[in-house]
Design a protein that fits this description.
158 residues, mainly beta, Immunoglobulin-like, 2 domains, four-stranded antiparallel β-sheet, three-stranded antiparallel β-sheet, 9 strands, 3% helix, 33% strand
Length: 158
């Protein structure tokens, strides 16, 4: 949550009754009641002497590349001047980027499933008909020079 209490990231523990669920499974409200989260900085004294390195995956059959697509850790996202608008959208999206002749665009739902893909998009702009898309939150992404660029979009009620 931001300091203004806006939810910008949500994590659903991929457990059903304490057992791992498969990535992408839809978990309803009482499937994964586990804990609340409070964010602490990496230099929090309670972490002293603790191993905070990655320990593997909780869910079954994880899409191991999905997290890398959310945000780039190698380059600022604005480097490609990547824009997706309007947001929220209803019937169409306009996607713009700089610096690359051709890109492959991919759209993922929030469970990490590929929802749509568009190959060899050129000219720095792509228009997408979203009228048939279900209401929800999606990630529009492309890769350039080994870096993922992504934007969260909301498809609203029709």
């Amino acid at each position: 949550m931001t300091p203004d209490n806006e939810i910008v990231w949500e994590y659903k523990t991929p457990l059903v009754g304490g057992s791992p669920a498969t990535q992408g499974d839809t978990l309803v409200i009482n499937n994964n009641l586990t804990f609340r989260m409070k964010r602490y900085p990496a230099d929090f004294a309670g972490f002293d002497g603790r191993d905070l390195s990655l320990q593997g995956w909780i869910e079954l059959e994880p899409n191991t590349s999905y997290c890398d697509m959310l945000t780039s850790t190698m380059a600022p996202m604005d480097e490609a001047n990547f824009k997706v608008f309007p947001n929220p959208a209803n019937d169409f999206l306009t996607i713009e980027w700089d610096g690359m002749m051709y890109v492959d665009l991919e759209v993922f739902d929030m469970a990490g499933r590929k929802f749509a893909s568009f190959t060899n998009c050129n000219g720095g702009r792509k228009f997408i008909d979203t009228a048939p898309w279900p209401t929800g939150v999606y990630l529009v992404s492309f890769i350039a020079d080994g870096n993922w660029y992504s934007r969260k979009i909301i498809i609203g009620e029709k």
